[in-house]
Amino acid sequence: MRNEFALERYRYIQQQIHAVNENAHRFLAIYQTLATALVSAALALFVGYRKWEVAPDVARGGVIGLLILATVVAAFTSTLIVVGALAWLDYRNEECDITDEIVAPGFRKRPNPGNLFRWYETYVLLFITASVITMWVLAGIFLLPAMR
């Protein structure tokens, strides 16, 4: 009975690890979609505000608001990725606990958070951070000064 329970728990943990891995890709896709839409809206506002007879200050506020929304989406996505990585660590440790007890101690090597630079989540977070910084810098250099 104990081994059957351990096997079922092990299967559940494996499913959760798989789901956590898939979620990181979903979160990145959501970020890319929303960031692209928000930045496109900001660029459309920049290009069309004169034609639409929108005051420059209002247009600037709109561009800044859209960039703030893109930053919030980035922060939310980053939070979900970090929480997913922490959940993955927890599931992997639980997996190791089960294999240590049922199979043999040390059967499955525990995850090492020191391997941070080998995790794709690290590079996803770096991409998100770099893209948000790039959006703000480019808007500050090109868009906002031109909207006077």
Describe the structure in your own words.
α1 runs antiparallel to α2 and α2 (56-102) runs antiparallel to α3 (120-146). The termini are far apart. The radius of gyration is 22 Å and the shape is elongated. The protein is an all-alpha fold. It has one domain. It is 82% helix and 0% strand. The model has no long low-confidence stretch (mean pLDDT 95). Keywords: Membrane, Transmembrane, Transmembrane helix. This is Transmembrane protein. The chain crosses the membrane at residues 29-49, 61-89, 123-144. It comes from Streptomyces yatensis.
> How many H/I helical runs?
3
Order of helices and strands: HHH
Kindly estimate the percentage of residues that lie in beta strands according to DSSP: under 5%
Shape: elongated
Terminal residue distance: 74 Å
Helix/strand/pairing category: mainly alpha
Rg computed from alpha carbons, rounded to a whole number of angstroms: 22 Å
Q: Low-confidence stretches at least 5 residues in length (pLDDT < 50)?
A: none
The percent range for helix content is over 70%
Report the biggest beta sheet as strand number plus sense, adding barrel if it closes: none
Mean pLDDT: 95
In total, the number of domains comes to 1
Number of strands: 0
